[in-house]
Structure formats: structure tokens, C-alpha cells
Amino acid sequence: MAWDRNQMAARAALELEDGMYVNLGIGIPTLVANYVGDKDITLQSENGMLGMGPFPYEGEEDPDLINAGKQTITELPRTAYFDSATSFAMIRGGKIAAAILGAMEVAENGDLANWMIPGKLVKGMGGAMDLVAGVKRVIVVMDHTNKHGESKVLKACTLPLTGTGVVDRIITNLGVLDVVEGGLKIVECAEGVTEDELRAATEATIVN
Amino acid sequence: MQKIYGSAAEALDGLVFDGMTIAAGGFGLCGIPELLIDALVESGVKDLTIASNNCGVDGFGLGKLLDTKQIKKMISSYVGENAEFMRQYLSGELELEFNPQGTLAERMRAAGAGIPGFYTKTGVGTQIAEGKEHKDFNGETYILETGLFMDLSIVKAWKADETGNLVFRKTARNFNPPAATCGKVCIVEVEEIVPNGSLDPDHIHLPGIYVNRIIQGEHEKRIEKVTTRPRETAAE
């Protein structure tokens, strides 16, 4: 047993507090918006929008209104639009409280790799490098292991980095870990996962 | 001062040359200068260096200039939506300079503001920082990035008045304002040119001083990823 995508998103949503301005990455992080409940959270989309609404109803899509994942979205009564330079000024300026991002690898010192696999996958970093450098708190949501069963929570990243020492908290299908002095600290295990199972699936150093 | 031209081809007249550098607005397929891209294809200009967040998709947007092999180099943050791009890049036919998205936007903004370089934390400790000057401020390390001074800017806005004052619409604004400012010449294509006085001066997103030539035309405005929610959840 472990958390599925939606349970991981629901767990990540607990990280968000009333009044926060938050940037959600592509993939599981996008699902976090479904679990914020009554909390007053303003979602930033780095292509130039604060106050992102839900997906539109069929037939109401607007080609001029998309999120950073290029999906059609809607606006809210509080929405503001701005250009890309202004968008990243607020990101670099430390105005965004938290970013929830996907990852290919995370290391015990908070290093993050999520933008390329040399020779195979060359898509680009998009806004991820700016986000991890500028946002106050960086939370990674990802599967604990890859499709070969190998840990993605490592002593050191093997892929090109997105940022160094930038990750604060890791939420995976197996549990929640914090980046602390000397390694990672287990915050909680996912439902049905024992601490031993979590440790066994983690290559990184776990400190008590 | 006549800024309005009859077509994209006329607006490009005298401005294009092989090996030139172009900044293009747009994010994905949203707010891209479709008409000017088509006219660049028609012009046959070669060896272009284009700074744009993305490179369109196969057969649309800047992807059209890839199909005709008119692009020598792209400066982009994300190019994952385009199989032909990947093919040309991996085979060595196309050069690619990855810039973090905020760095790309700021490089354009800086050039437009006459700023040749700026320091940023973005990319410190990554491949992006290799070979760049590092400098500490208040105990934090930053890298030097340069302004992106380009030969030509091609952008898309919603409305322009006859002076070139621009209004954008929703997230189609994106890279268009910074891209507009960093070229020696800026051509804008709009959905509607309105008479001077019709736009509220307090609601201009980009003043006409940045705009040299304006064209009006029909835009396909293709959607990259149509994403909807079911009507049943309308209650919330």
C-alpha cells in the first residue's frame, strides 16, 4: 500500500496555508488545486497570471487563457494578468510563498534534478530554475522510485541539476521527508507503509 | 508617422537578412505572431537566431520555420512539444541555447531598458552557470546574465491604436511586452487597429514608443491542450 497520485496531491495540499500565493508545477502538482478546500490560496501561473481558476467547461475554452502547462483554464474575480518579466520578478523577488514541483531526482542536500536526461530527453527547464531559486519554500511531489524500482531520493543527483540545496520537503507515494542538516528526516509514512519500507526504498541518508 | 502596414510581408520589407536575430513573443501557441511567422517563411530568410520561450509545435507557429530549415539557433526555455525540433537538435542541425524562463524574459526586458547585464540566483550551481561570472551579494551567490539585444522583435497584441499603443488579452500577453522592447525594430500584429483616443491611456500595456510597424489580421489562435471539466461539478 502507498499513496496514489490523488492522495499525494491531497497530502501536498496540507502544506498550503490561508493567504498563500503558490505556484504549482505540471503533473501531480496540478492536482493539488483540487484539495485546497476552503483555504484562501492564490495560484500563480508563470506565463502571467495570479488567481488561476479551474478548467473551463467544454465549449468555453479561450485560446488566450492557458496555464504554464499550456492547458486551457479560467479566471476568477480576483485574477490579474501580467507579462513574463513581471511574472518572474515576483518569483525572483521572493513574493511567492511556495512552489510544488515534480522531480526526476532529489538528493539529501536538497539538490533537485527535473529538467533533462542527457541524450534522451531534452525538453528544457521552463520556469523551474527560477522558481526553485526564488520561492520561499520548495516542495517536491513525485514517485519514490522509478519504473525500475530504483530510488529517486538519492545521496547525490546523477542528472543535470535544476537547483542546488533548494528542496525543503519531499512528498512521495511512500511518505513525507524533510531536508535537514546531514540528510533527510522522516516526517510521516504513507498509509500502509512502514518506516522500514520507506528507509529501504530510500538511497539517501536518513537522520533521526 | 505612419506605422500601419497593409500586410505582414509589407511590414517585414527591408528588415530581414540572412543570419539576423529575432525576438518573438508568445508562450506555447498562446499570443504568438502567427502572421509574421508565415511572412518570414515566405521571405525565405535563412540562418535565423530566434529568442522565444518555445518553438511552436510541428507545423504551426515557429515550427513552420523549423520545417523549412530557416532557423540556425533557438534561445528558449522549453522545447518539449515539437518532434521536428528534437530531431534537428539531436542530429546537430539546430543549435539550442537553453535559458531559464525568467532569465529569458529578464534578458529581453534588460536589453529593452538599455541594461547590458544583471545578476540572478537562477541557475547557480547548474549547467546554466558554467562559464558565467559569479558574484556574491549579502552572502548569496549570483551569476551574471546579459541583455538580449536583437535585430527585430515580432509580437502579437490584441489591439493597437494608430500610434502603436498596445493592449494584450489575458495570458496572451506573456513574453510579448519584453520581446517587443529588445529589438532594434518592433513589428506588432493585432486583431484590431482602433483610432487614437479609443484606448484608455491608463490601460495601455505597452506604449507605442516601442512599436515601429503595425499590421492587423485574422489569427487562427490554435489551442495546444484543450482541457475541460465536466458540467456535473458546476455546483462548486
Describe this structure in words.
Chain A: Belongs to the 3-oxoacid CoA-transferase subunit B family. The complex is a heterodimer of chains A (208) and B (236). Chain A is 17% helix and 27% strand. Chain A is α/β, with parallel strands linked by helices. Chain A has 5 helices and 15 strands. Chain A has one domain: Glutaconate Coenzyme A-transferase, CATH 3.40.1080.10. Chain B has one domain (8-116, 149-216): Glutaconate Coenzyme A-transferase, CATH 3.40.1080. Chain B contains 6 helices and 11 strands. In chain B, the strands form 2 sheets. In chain B, strands 1, 2, 3, 4, 8, 9, 10 and 11 form an 8-stranded mixed beta sheet that branches. Chain B has a 3-stranded antiparallel beta sheet with strand order 5-7-6. At the A-B interface, helix 3 and helix 4 of A face helix 4, helix 5 and helix 6 of B.
Low-confidence stretches of chain A: none
CATH class of chain B: Alpha Beta
Q: Spell out the CATH superfamily of chain A.
A: Glutaconate Coenzyme A-transferase
User: Helix and strand succession of chain A?
Assistant: HEHEEEHEEEEEHEEEEEHE
Q: What strand line-up does the widest sheet of chain A have?
A: 4-3-2-1-5-10-12-13-14-15
Number of helices of chain B: 6
Looking at the overall shape, the CATH architecture of chain A is 3-Layer(aba) Sandwich
What's the pLDDT, averaged over the residues of chain A? 96
User: How much helical structure, as a percent, in the residues of chain A?
Assistant: 10-25%
Uncertain stretches of 5 or more adjacent residues of chain B? none
Oligomeric state as shown: heterodimer
The tally of structural domains of chain B comes to 1
The proportion of strand residues of chain A reads 25-35%
Name of the level-1 CATH class of chain A: Alpha Beta
Count of individual helical segments of chain A: 5
- Give the integer mean of the pLDDT values of chain B: 96
Which terms would index this structure?
heterodimer; A: 208 residues; alpha/beta; 15 strands; B: 236 residues; Glutaconate Coenzyme A-transferase; three-stranded antiparallel β-sheet; 11 strands; 3-oxoacid_CoA-transf_B (chain A)
